[in-house]
Design a protein that fits this description.
Elements (H helix, E strand, L loop, with lengths): L2 H11 L7 E4 L3 E4 L9 H12 L12 E4 L6 E4 L5 E5 L11 H17 L3 E5 L5
Antiparallel strand pairs: 1-2, 1-6, 2-5, 3-4, 4-5
Length: 129
């Protein structure tokens, strides 16, 4: 999937009340409750991703929940770190009927990639940033 396709899926996955979010290369995004209180959105998103993105086995960084989506294909994987989710599209998995564990582990691996090498590909805001 290209960046535009990922952005379109995430826009359908996010609760519409959240308009301020930053998307990273591997599908992890961070929701900001009030982006106007953030001095530099890019710096804050990178800081949060570096803190909460990497996965450390045996810690809360390895925990996750799988959220089944209804308005678009795929799932969201949440983990530790407020407002941080990773989008997983069905085409990314080999199994046509994956269970929550398979989806969650894959999403967690994507979040880890974003945490180790964070690259912002989109900033969505209801305000100019």
């Amino acid at each position: 999937m290209n960046n535009e396709e990922i952005i379109a899926h995430i826009k359908l996955a996010i609760n519409p009340k959240f308009q301020d979010w930053v998307l990273f290369k591997n599908g992890t995004y961070i929701i900001f409750d009030d982006i106007t209180t953030v001095k530099d959105v890019k710096d804050e998103a990178l800081k949060l991703m570096k803190e909460f993105g990497p996965v450390f086995a045996g810690s809360s960084a390895g925990d996750f929940n799988t959220i089944h989506l209804h308005l678009t294909e795929g799932w969201l994987v949440s983990g530790h770190g407020y407002g941080m989710y990773t989008y997983v599209h069905p085409s990314e998995l080999d199994n046509e009927m994956p269970d929550d564990l398979e989806i969650g582990l894959y999403g967690r691996s994507k979040r880890n990639l974003d945490g180790q090498n964070p690259e912002i590909i989109h900033i969505n805001s209801q305000y100019s940033v």
